[in-house]
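Project standup — Tuesday

K.O.: blocked on the structure for the chain from last sprint. Re-posting the sequence here as requested.
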Amino acid sequence: MKLVTQVKLIPEADQAAALSATLRTVNQLACWVSTVAFAHGVPREYELRKHTYAHLKAAGLGAQAAQHVIKKVRDAYTTLHANIRAGTYGKPGSRRRTKVESKPIAFRPRAAQPYDDRCLSWNYDARTVSIWTTAGRLKNVRFACSAGALTTLRQYRKGESDLIERDGVFYLVATCEVPEAATYEPDAFVGVDLGIVNIATTSTGFRAAGRGLNRYRKRQQALRAKLQKKRTKSAKRRLKQRSGREQRHATNTNHVIAKTIVTEAERTSCGISLEDLKGIRQRVRLRRPQRVALHSWAFAQLGGFIVYKARRVGVPLVLVDPAYTSQTCAECGHLDTRNRIDQATFICQGCGVVAHADRIASRNIAHKGEAVWNAGRESRVPATPSGCLDGGAHPAAGRALPPSPVL
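H.V.: unblocked you, prediction finished:
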């Protein structure tokens, strides 16, 4: 499976200037290529190359860099069209979708630029890279990363790496082909219920409360609103300094939660049963004060972390339909909307079981996961006649078979 490993570049002053100038140049040219592609109806990559390659070479780009700029633009349009088909930008004729479709894609001055092995080479022992820039080849550019990341790079790096600049700091994001571990036969399944009040609740008793993260988000939101209201230079500078901090904090929280769940499942030789929440934002209708909490809920990121961490260590994982899992009793199976008293309380109207609603949901998800796993392992081959099990004669033995029809 593909994973990415990020390393921090530590260039000298002149090297940093060359890297920054390179990103500005390639992204400026990418905007030009995007304009040409939009004017020609976004042709295929080979056709787009005929219209743009000579100009990119004349602008000072190398052959490989020019190819990557063209491919980056074409991939951006491919992603845009996929999102339009999926309805991400609304229905046909909507103002948002019309705005997206009416103008070419623009690239930020510091947007990522892909590099292949011809433009970028690694020296793991010295922890340096040699990288192409518009000012020439930069050699012995130092980088820093953890010991685990260096081992992953040395063993599994394969494919392209992206150069990005964030707040004046340069990073290389490398693609690594990490082999998946063999999946074992699970003894049971751990159900994982995802939510906002409780980020994750498992059927084994683990609960990651979302109180701290939700408070952090509200505090950050209030601070952003306060700074935006001032509209001074210092306030804008402060906003720029704090950009991305909330996202990084939430990402780290999801990493910790996912690692805890996968480690517990691996230790107990269990599989993981996870909710399939795809499209929930389109299905759910909420009041305005609740929409910020819903759209800040990074359930897809947490689910993705659990999936890739489980695949890496060989933990079996299944996705199940979450419908009615918080309204069904995990003891007697009684389904009733009245079972869910409030967000946290579950009282079965059939057998009287009292429990936390998220815990009940996680147990139901675990049961569904086990059923899905067993259904996938069931044989679809018809049963063998009983007379043939012990080597005895089949009832039809000794009788002449009818001739096969001629087709």
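K.O.: great, moving the ticket to review. The chain has twelve helices and 14 strands. Residues 44 and 292 are 39 Å apart (CA to CA).
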